[in-house]
Specification:
InterPro entries: GNAT_dom
Organism: Tissierella simiarum
Number of helices: 4
Protein name: GNAT family N-acetyltransferase
Shape: globular
Pfam family, one: Acetyltransf_1
CATH class of one domain: Alpha Beta
Structural class: alpha+beta
Largest sheet: 8 strands, mixed
Number of strands: 8
CATH architecture of one domain: 3-Layer(aba) Sandwich
Strand content: 35-45%
């Protein structure tokens, strides 16, 4: 699905919230590798699960056509600095659900970009009739967990020793969900 672009005035920063176009594919591919290498909060290490520019072109096209999928980017001064994808489930028994994740370049943390991406995903999900939206987050990412709780997400489970980080230690993953605001 495609939504209208919005100009956002955040914490000491002005940026644009919009859906990506095929012209963004190469930049998104590079950004994803960069972000994956900046933090242990995401599932991948830099270069793992690589999405090429062609892969992103395909995703952008498919997401723009799908009713229950939303792909948004955050653009500062003509440069994409973060993105979110919310993917609706296509299986009949789970068609009421969607999952999403948010990635923001470390240099843009703390400017409220994640909050705005989250708010727009939730507004879209509610308007689309998605009854449940879920995500996973590493247990040590307490800022993200607090933000999600502020927007109605609850902890639904804990996957113990779910991931191993570069430090060789195991970490837990928190499963969180939010039901449609009716």
């Amino acid at each position: 699905m495609i939504i209208e672009s919005k100009k956002i005035e955040g914490k000491n920063i002005k940026w644009i919230l919009r859906c990506p176009t095929k012209n963004d594919a190469a930049e998104l591919s590079e950004l994803r590798i960069k972000i994956d290498g900046e933090t242990e909060n995401l599932d991948r290490e830099s270069g793992e699960g690589l999405l090429t520019p062609e892969d992103f072109k395909k995703l952008i096209y498919e997401d723009s056509m799908a009713e229950r999928t939303l792909f948004l980017v955050a653009e500062v001064d003509g440069k994409i600095v973060g993105f979110t994808r919310c993917i609706g489930n296509k299986l009949s028994r789970f068609r009421h659900k969607a999952e999403f994740g948010i990635c923001i370049s470390k240099e843009y943390w703390g400017h409220g970009i994640g909050k705005v991406l989250l708010e727009n995903v939730l507004m879209w999900a509610d308007a689309t009739g998605i009854e449940k939206i879920s995500l996973t987050v590493v247990e040590t990412n307490t800022k993200a967990i607090q933000l999600y709780k502020k927007y109605g997400f609850v902890e639904e489970g804990l996957l113990r020793k779910d991931r191993i980080h570069k430090d060789g230690n195991y970490y837990n993953t928190v499963i969180m969900g939010r039901l449609l605001n009716k």
